[in-house]
Every structure is written in C-alpha cells, then in structure tokens.
Amino acid sequence: MPLPDSTSAGRKVGFVSLGCPKALVDSERILTQLRVEGYDIVQTYDDADVVVVNTCGFIDSAVTESLDAIGEAMAENGKVIVTGCLGKRPEQIREAHPDVLAITGPQDYRSVMNAVYAALPPTHDPFVDLVPRRFEENDIGIKLTPKHYAYLKISEGCNHRCSFCIIPSMRGDLVSRPVDEVLREAEKLAMGGVKELLVISQDTSAYGVDVKYAERTWRGKAYQTRMKALCEGLSELGIWTRLHYVYPYPHVDDIIPLMAERNADGLPKLLPYLDIPFQHASPRVLKLMKRPGAVDKTLERIQRWRDICPDITLRSTFIVGFPGETEAEFEELLDFLDEAQLDRVGAFAYSPVEGAAANALPDPVPEDVKQERLARFMARQAEISEAKLADKVGSVQRCLVDAIDGELAIARSMADAPEIDGLVQIQNGFEAGLKPGDFVDVEIMGSDEHDLYGEVPFDD
Ligand code: SF4
C-alpha cells in the first residue's frame, strides 16, 4: 500500500497497513499522530528507523498474512512494532517473531506511540517544542484512501456474539463516537475535497445504543447519537454518504425515506445503498451462528424498502458450509437468493477462526462439500447480478470518477462501493476531460456480470 511521503527531516517510521477498512482507519489515525509529532513517514524498510505493522487477525489466512508481514519487516529492518487485531494474541506473534520490539492491540494508539517513543526517543527542539502540536481546524489528517473518498468510523467494538467471530474479544463491546464529533470530522473531510463518505463500524445500526442515544449539538442544531440522526446530519453536507455493516433491524426502515428524498441538486440525501451482512437464510443455521433469524421478516423488510425506494442497492455477504449446514439448509439459502434478488453478494466457505465458539459445533461440513456449495452459490448469484446490471443498460447513472486509464475513465455509480463492488467504465472519459473526484452523468450502453460500460453524452 503506497503511503504518504514526508519531506521534513526527522526520525523515520515505516508503516505496513493490513486488514479491513476499520483497520485502515486505525492506520490513518496512527500515521496522523506520528506526523503531528514530527516523525517522517518513509516508503522503504531501508529508510526506516523503525517499522509499525498494523495487523489483521480475523481469519486464519489473515493471521498468516500478518505473521508473514511481520517476518518481512523483521528481516528487512529488524526494529518492528506490532499493533492491530493480531496484537490481541501476543503469544502467537512472539512464538513466530520473538524479537519484535512491542505488541499492542487494536485502537490502542497511545501504546503504539509509547512504543515508537521508546524506539526513537523524541528529540528536544526548544523552538518547535514551545509550539503546541495539534491539528488546524480544517486539517483532515493522513488518509490512505484516494482524495475523493474516505472511511468514517462511527464506533468501535460490537455487542453481538456471533459464534464464528472473534471481533468482540479483540475490539471489545460497542463504543460509539459522539455524533457531533463524527459530523465535525465529516464536515472537515467534505471541506478537504472528499466527495464520498463510507460509514463503517462493526454494526452501524447499533450506533448510539451504548450512550443511550445522547444528544449533541452540531451547527447549532441538536442531533441524537443514533443512526437516523447521523444520516440526517451527513445529508446536509451535499456529498455521497454510503452505509456499511447495517443489520436488518426494524429501525433501519426509518432511514430509507432519506434515500428516496432528493436535495436541491436532485441527488439522494443518503445513497440508496445498504451493505447488510445476512450471512445465511436458514433460521437454524442463523441460530447456530447466533444471528437474528427471522428470515421471512427480512424478505418482507426488503420488499418494504424497495416500495419506498425502488432504486435501492442491497449488498450482502454470506457464509456457506457453516458447521452442521445440511444440503436442505443450503438450498434454503439458494431460495433466499432467488427471492431477495440482492444486487451485490460476497460469499465465503466457512473456515474456523482460532478462539471462535463455532469451532466447538458438531458436524463440520467436509471441505470439498463447502467448495462445491460455494461454487453453486456464486453461480446462482452471478445470474441475478448479471440480470440486474443488464436492466440498467439504457439508463443514465450519476457516477463518481476514481481514475483515468488511457481513453477510459474508471468510475462508480451510486450502486458501487469502492473495492468491493463493480465499476462503470466510461469509454470517452479522457475526451470528456474527466478527472478523479468528478461527478458525471453516464449513459449506460453495456453490462456484464460485474461492471457497466457507458459514455458521457456530448451536446451536438
Ligand atoms: S455483528 Fe457478529 S460478525 Fe459482526 S463484529 Fe459483531 S460479533 Fe462479529
């Protein structure tokens, strides 16, 4: 991952960022603090006086990747501080790499900084040290995303205890950020040129439960620390806001009208997009997973959302081959796909995560059966996604340009989140003078299983 370069002379820190968008936000925060405190962020192991590795520990392959990254940093540099989710398992890290300098857990920014101070003691500069080191009002800190979109983390931790997941044991129970603090950060990002905010958390619909929906003030108006009020505040910024990790609770219904409402520019106040990890559709499997299991209500709810906001895009993720999943239960899942007609779907074959309660469940599904089910699942959804995208041919879609590639502009419509969904290739993007961060209306002329193809119409 390319990291921002620094020109000031000083103590030099290398940084390796692994894992999900939530870990990326942690990396941004540590990098910003390092920069504020006068450290240089450098691009190579050779240039670094110390290397910080922000790890992921969610599934076994992520653990392996994290241990490999630590090993590489040890071999190339030798002075390594480990942080992030895998930091919750220090024995595992020490067993593979006994000589790392320090190990801290996720969101433990202060301990990472203390480890950096120990490795590279701050030097006393009588001129600089008299100046308080803090952000300017509109400083948005270091971002690892392109300039025109940013992740907005609204809470840490999770109150659920899904049996396949160890996040609560790594990140703790839900802790929501006060709504005014989140809105102020969003405002700064918008003023700094961000055109799309990606709201992330472990459970966005639970936002504010822990603080009893405390009321705060932003721009002279009262807002509750609650998903709906947050969305209302964000809609004031006039940029795209996309919600991730939302659970299908009844109160999610309250935000759908905002997706159907238009602002003064004719754009939805909130992107008509929900990323909802359903994980399965069989009530028994959902119970084993310790997830909410009212599948019929979920289908009804989806229908109601579509009645209110017909162009809503629904994205979800699923696990196939969970311990005890029978062929009949897997077929229930396929039937759910047919009925729900989701726009975007990701799926994984179940793989045990060290420390997860699901490991103790009986009747594990053999690996070949898991893989065969995954292939059937993906084939079924591919047909649905392809048909849904084909329906868009002939329409005009508002898109946000991510990059220029030769003659093409690579963009995303409101239905596409960065990294995980599809793209819109604009065939005459260069000729139309587009650049990253531009909004543009695109005439859709073709589609395939993942992407759309179109052109910017020119006036004759
Ligand atoms: S909702 Fe479940 S899967 Fe998501 S973080 Fe919480 S415990 Fe893990």
Automatic annotation (TrEMBL):
Residues annotated for [4Fe-4S] cluster 2 binding in this entry: 158, 162, 165
Principal localisation: cytoplasm
Entry-linked InterPro entries: Elp3/MiaA/NifB-like_rSAM, Methylthiotransferase, Methylthiotransferase_CS, Methylthiotransferase_N, Methylthiotransferase_N_sf, NA-bd_OB-fold, Ribosomal_uS12_MeSTrfase_RimO, rSAM
Every Radical SAM core domain range: 144-387
One GO CC annotation: ribosome
Domain of life: Bacteria
Residues covered by the TRAM domain: 390-458
PROSITE patterns: MTTASE_N (PS51449), MTTASE_RADICAL (PS01278), RADICAL_SAM (PS51918), TRAM (PS50926)
Annotated Pfam families: Radical_SAM, TRAM_2, UPF0004
Positions bound to [4Fe-4S] cluster 1: 20, 56, 85
Entry keyword Metal-binding: yes
Cofactor note: Binds 2 [4Fe-4S] clusters. One cluster is coordinated with 3 cysteines and an exchangeable S-adenosyl-L-methionine.
Cofactor(s) essential for the protein: [4Fe-4S] cluster
This enzyme's EC code(s): 2.8.4.4
Subcellular location: Cytoplasm
Occurrences of domain MTTase N-terminal (ranges): 11-121
Family: Belongs to the methylthiotransferase family. RimO subfamily.
PANTHER family: RIBOSOMAL PROTEIN S12 METHYLTHIOTRANSFERASE RIMO (PTHR43837), RIBOSOMAL PROTEIN US12 METHYLTHIOTRANSFERASE RIMO (PTHR43837:SF1)
Protein name in UniProt: Ribosomal protein uS12 methylthiotransferase RimO
Organism: Lysobacter hankyongensis
Gene: rimO
